[in-house]
Task: inverse folding
């Protein structure tokens, strides 16, 4: 049997991963985005052919210098909202083990990385990061924008 596509599709969605990583004290890593004026989790878009766990550990390393293995990245849920009329799918990924200390690797995007207690998070939060945080720590954040949440079995 042969399979074929209809031709090059026109892009119509954004996909990426938001990475919830904690230190030994249980604090979550957030970066201050100068560009957006918000706090955000490490993360970003998938490369072509890349799975969400692979994107999560790659983005974690690129943005913070923390090194993790894909097998230490647990995909918890897929979250779908929209931005400027474009569907956005964010994988909520929890990284359980890593090596290194966070440092700014993309100063044009992130001014600094800081560890924060999940019960006392700074504001404002980037919307996809807030949805990922709400997936990992349900109920901590209130008045979130709408999102379609698809929890993954075994997560």
Result:
């Amino acid at each position: 049997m042969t399979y074929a596509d209809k031709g090059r599709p026109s892009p119509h969605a954004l996909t990426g991963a938001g990475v919830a990583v904690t230190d030994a004290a249980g604090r979550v890593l957030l970066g201050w985005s100068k560009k957006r004026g918000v706090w955000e989790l490490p993360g970003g878009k998938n490369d072509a052919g890349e799975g969400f766990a692979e994107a999560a550990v790659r983005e974690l390393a690129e943005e913070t210098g923390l090194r993790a293995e894909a097998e230490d990245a647990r995909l918890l849920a897929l979250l779908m909202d929209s931005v400027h009329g474009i569907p956005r799918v964010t994988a909520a990924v929890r990284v359980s083990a890593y090596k290194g200390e966070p440092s700014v690797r993309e100063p044009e995007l992130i001014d600094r990385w800081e560890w924060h207690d999940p019960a006392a998070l700074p504001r404002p939060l980037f919307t996809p990061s807030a949805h990922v945080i709400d997936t990992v720590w349900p109920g901590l954040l209130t008045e979130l924008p709408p999102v379609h949440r698809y929890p993954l079995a075994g997560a």
In short: Residues 52-64 form the longest helix (13 residues). DSSP finds two helices and eight strands in the chain. The beta strands are 14-21, 28-33, 38-40, 43-45, 73-83, 86-95, 110-116, 148-151.
